[in-house]
Write the structure tokens for this entry.
Amino acid sequence: MKKKVTKSLLPILFGFFVMGFCDIVGISSDYVQRSFNWSPMMTGFVPSMVFIWFLFLGIPIGNKMNQWGRKNTVLLSMAITIVGMLLPLFAYGSVTCMMAYALLGIGNAILQVSLNPLLSNVISNSAYLTSSLTAGQVVKAISSLAGPEIVLLAVNHFGADKWYYCFPILGLITVLSAVW
């Protein structure tokens, strides 16, 4: 039984890693501003495109999650994130970047609402649940640290004008998490 819980826990914790991807918005907004000559006000709007979705989607998704299933809701969030991460590759432009940020925010909002309850399905003992939720937040913090490094990796490898190549890297990690 304990082996089954550990086997189920690891993919869920990897989902917490995906949850930290929204923190690339800080470093990448500078590259977006340079790419499209956005004003500081427009650039300041970029984080709103990511984080505003928590306000609008938190409660409705929480209500629908039990109908859809917790695992299905997590997978939906990852699918939305993957679409957002691939969009700039197919059509790189000001609008598609804003759409990518919006989809990243939507996917992340749904993931944050659904991942903790999914973890509670796997961990039935409340003493272990608390430490597992803490472990998830540690994994998310590691992702928050790694996200800007992935952006810098893309910039160093492909050039500052191809900063958005960080998106398929993040999308691939999200695919791996969803498949696992």
